[in-house]
Amino acid sequence: MKKVIGIISAFMGLAIIFAACSKDSYADKLEKEEKAIKQYIKEQGFNIINEYPASRVFADKQYFKDPDTGIYIHVIDSGNKDKIKKGDIVYMRYYDARFLISEPDSTYSNDKQNYDEFAALYFTYGNSGSYISSDYSSVYPLSSYMYTFLSPGCARPLDFNLGDKAEVSILVPFANGSYYQQYSNYEPIFFGRLKYVK
Q: Is the model more confident about 78 or about 119?
């Protein structure tokens, strides 16, 4: 009996070692992500700057790399004078979103015309707990969109004093990405355009 238990334990140990060796380490995932980001930036001809423009006006294809988060931000339109403030509920539309490693040629949008709960993602600006959703349900479509696309990275541009109806383009590394990015596919996402409405 001891011999059988020993053999079973040995097989289980080998299975665990084999499984651990076959998966990428966190460092490997970061390296793969960095390579994908650099390649995408080069292909798109983006000009990366290290300081947010004092004029708040971005040149064409100019992206600010936020040193605190690693997120790349391009402000398309800073919105109107009605600034988005902490505590505001913000509805977010995304257009031309793409995962840079697994689906670089596929794009996603949630561009329905009305801002109802089934179309727009939403969060409470200033409440970081509302920036990410671990809830995934194929029955309730909004939860799957929030799980896949909503992230702290999506809220970060608002820290630069944007107004209602502001539009940005961002590239979000997985460390500041959605629950799906952080715990499932470990890859960056590029949003060709995000629009914020309060």
A: 78
Distance between CA atoms of 78 and 146, rounded to whole angstroms? 24
Query: What DSSP line would sit under 162-191, residue for residue?
Result: -BTT-EEEEEE-GGGS-HHIIIII---EEE
For 181, left (φ over 0), alpha (ψ -120 to 50), or beta? alpha
Residue 148 CB burial class (10 angstroms; 0-12, 13-18, ≥19): buried
Identify the CATH number of the domain in which residue 129 sits: 3.10.50.40
- In this structure, what DSSP letter does residue 24 have? P
Q: Could you identify the residue written with the tokens 């949008």? A: 109
Q: Find out whether 72 and 154 touch, Cβ atoms under 8 Å.
A: no
Residue 31 lies in a domain: yes
pTM for the structure as a whole: 0.83
AA letter at 114: N
Residue 171's domain comprises 25-197
User: Domain count of the chain?
Assistant: 1
Q: Which of 26-40, 97-111, 114-128, 130-144 has the least mean pLDDT?
A: 114-128
pLDDT tier, 156 (very low <50, low <70, confident <90, very high otherwise): very high
Q: How far is CA 116 from CA 21, 93, 139, 169, 184, in A?
A: 46, 11, 17, 22, 28
Alpha helices in the chain (DSSP H): 2-22, 26-44, 141-149, 152-155, 179-180
